[in-house]
# Entry
Amino acid sequence: MTLTIRTATASDARSLADLAAATFALACPPHTTAEAIADFIATQLSSARFDDYLADPARVLLVAEQHAATDAASGRLAVGYTMLVFAEPTDADVAAAIGIRPTVELSKFYTLASSHGTGVSGPLMAATLDVAAARGAAGAWLGVNQENARAIRFYEKNGFARVGTKHFLVGDRLEDDLVLERRLP
# Structure
């Protein structure tokens, strides 16, 4: 299988929503209810929301696809995606915690569970940070649930360091997230 990473286009909204629906729960702490996850997916990760994200000039989405090396045009399977938001953070806790400007938020970084450990995440992160730097960001930040040890290890392995905390609402529960930041090359 060959991995391709490309900038998502408007025609990718449906497949991105499907990928988001398949991956969002992987980042949630164990106490998150199925109802809260379903509501978040319906309100924040629907095809219509991805239409909005893809049309927003302050956002760039990348999609990672695997395909047979002999036929790159057919049989593509979306296995991961990222979303960058080029704007100053609106969350006061984040704004106070990050120190590198101009900054970009790595708002979403998800891969299918079946792709974990297969070599998808590293290239997807590298491509995402390359896009961020090419667009003028000096630093990147993200929020990650403090209970998501696997993701925290991955982000730290990729140069992110803890700089603060913030809250993230899923359902009616405020979750505690770590704020991680890294300098871009």
